[in-house]
Amino acid sequence: MNSNTTSKSLLSSPLSEYLTISPFKMGFLESFLPNYNPTMWDTLVKKMMTYYDKILIVKGDKQYLPKGTKLYHGDIQYPFTPGSKSTGNKNNMTFFGLDIDIAIWYILELVEIEKFKKNNNFSRFGFLYIFVLQEDLELSKIIDIIRDNPKEIRKCRHKNNVCLHPQVAYRGRVETAPQVYKLCSEVTLFYQNYSEILLLDKIYVIDPLLLELHKNNKDWKPRNAIIKKYNSTTIEEDIYTETIDVETYKRYYLGALHHKETKRRKKTKRRKKTKNKKKPK
After folding, report:
1. Does the CA dihedral 238-241-246-250 come out positive or negative?
2. Range of the domain at 27
3. Quick check: pTM over 0.85?
4. Which of 166, 174, 231, 257 could form a disulfide with 48 if both were Cys (CB 3.0 to 4.6 A apart)?
């Protein structure tokens, strides 16, 4: 995994900073300013915008991702399936990472969400799909507000449009992910309209268990969860069909969450007891 080719294929976010406060956690005044970034995130968003200025091509009044740009898509399904992961609609918007960080961590989120969809036979492995643009890709909108979701923006919902925006890489489900936040980038488009210029170049097999074990360590690199690379677009082995049973899934992915919830409840209970003791008679 140390060849120059692999190194160039796997691009990390250009920003190395981590924050411990979610961009969706707002102060009282910030809650009245939906079109502004939270103060501590604003600096990082501006850095990302500067990065976009460096990599994008300008033609007239339009901006483009240049030919040869790599787009990354993380999933627990093989083969590659575009569209919505929540509804299964292949015609919906597809999300791609402009770096591997957000695409790989998204695999852990999908694995954790499976508990709401299945009773058994959970996914054992994930897949990182690498696409390469075969021509310049025109951007319809660059979103600079970190809390804005392209699915809720009319211009991004148009099937012929492409949007680019900074996005936090959550290490698992948004509601339960550890407070280790890194700013990355996402590209949204409707795959059916752009499939001819998106070449599927490589597939990497990801071990979500490694992501789960190291998700609290900000210095651990998600690329370390890669266990195999395929230079072709076809996986000939049965690795994509391997699953784990419900008890193993619970032990792997829900044990730490259960411990965290139990700890939170005990803490809340202690606070209530302390508060009751302080009440005047």
Report:
1. positive
2. 4-244
3. yes
4. 166
